Amino acid sequence: MAGVYGSVAAAVAVAVVMVAAMVSSLPCGVEAKTTIDPCSGSDSCSALLGYTLYADMKVSEVAALFLADPEALLAANALDFAAPGAAHRILPMGLFIRVPTRCACADGVRKSVSVRYAARPADTLATVADGVFAGLASADQIRNANALASADPDAPLDPGQKLVIPLPCVCFNSSDNNLPAVYLSYVVQVGDTVPVIAASYETTVTDIMNVNAMGSPVAAPGDILAIPLPACTSTFPKSASDHGLIVANGTYALTAGNCVQCSCGPGNLNLYCTPASLTGSCPSMQCSNSNVLLGNVSTRATSAGCNVSSCSYGGFVNGTITTSLSTGLQSRCPGPHQFPTLTEPPTTVNHDSTFLPPLSAPGPAEAGGAIPPPSSPSLQGGSFTLPKVSTANGPAGSVSEAPRMSKPHQILSSFIFCLLLYSQILIAMWL
């Protein structure tokens, strides 16, 4: 019997060695694909980066890494941004979050070029690209952006060396299938498939293929896909510092020096802005010639219907919060406005599922009515969910390529090594 088991173990060992030899012969320089959005001029637009934390990090640390505002980072993920000490909450390693960014036009394509990273001891281009920035930028892209001479991605960087980190983003005129949308740059993970990604964001395979100019519904680990998310757009004038503000459905955005919070959904895709409770020094938010404050709605029932007056946000212009008062007669008085649910920052990550549950698509709802205090959107604890909703069909982008992350290759090699070690143990036991 021992001879039989020994023969089997030896055969396993031989097979593992053969597979290992085959894997080691695979090209490591396979190109990762990134959807690009050609552009011209110097304008910028709002976009989202899909980022997976490489370690436990404070909200403020994640925000500093991407030059983002901590509260704005929380708002973009529908996390409670008004809670005391929210910026110092610790987020767990492996958590997937959305990072708001300004998508500039550089070298004829859309990209985020504002992030700077100071190298730490033992950092290499590979660890910065694949580890710190979770595959959002490749080692080659970082090297080219900084005109570095060394072609070795594993060569140590000088501690303190400042690096420009080019990050992928697209805008496609902030629309998808002629509907407002904000685009999320998503790094494909090991085990992902396009149908699974599409289902998790409540979109279609066809839409993802069209947006990303894909010839087939196949994406490899390390590819970066542009995912359209339904959003609420603004009509602020170009003179406003927050011109072009767009908010993904089910989330929030902060503007006007964090004096105003704007939300999208869940009932419809109409932007709704109210005072934020993050700072004690803000310009006036009262609509002129009225006693109605920003975001408030006054109603008065009459025999003819309901007289409705509302104060809406019109942008942040030269340090002034502009507002507009609208009045009208409606058939009935509107009910309270429904805000997107805020959750507490998570402390653990559920690894049983690659994706988090999406919100249902927006449906008809009534706006207006009594407005809760700014910090009163319903707050829930427990498991962490990100809203993931979308539309179908969209603009076609083009694709660029960069050396793919070597993580899948490393994982497979480690697995083979473990199999080889196990086979050797079997041989020692039975021979």
UniProtKB/TrEMBL annotation:
Residues 359-404 are annotated as: Disordered. CDD domains: LysM. Residues 359-370 have a biased composition (Low complexity). The keyword Metal-binding does not apply. Residues 1-32 form the signal peptide. Residues 115-165, 184-227 form the LysM domain. InterPro entries: LysM (IPR018392), LysM_dom_sf (IPR036779). SUPFAM superfamilies: LysM domain. It comes from the Eukaryota. The chain crosses the membrane at residues 411-430. Keywords: Membrane, Signal, Transmembrane, Transmembrane helix. Residues 379-393 have a biased composition (Polar residues). PROSITE patterns: LYSM. This is LysM domain-containing protein. It comes from Oryza meyeriana var. granulata.
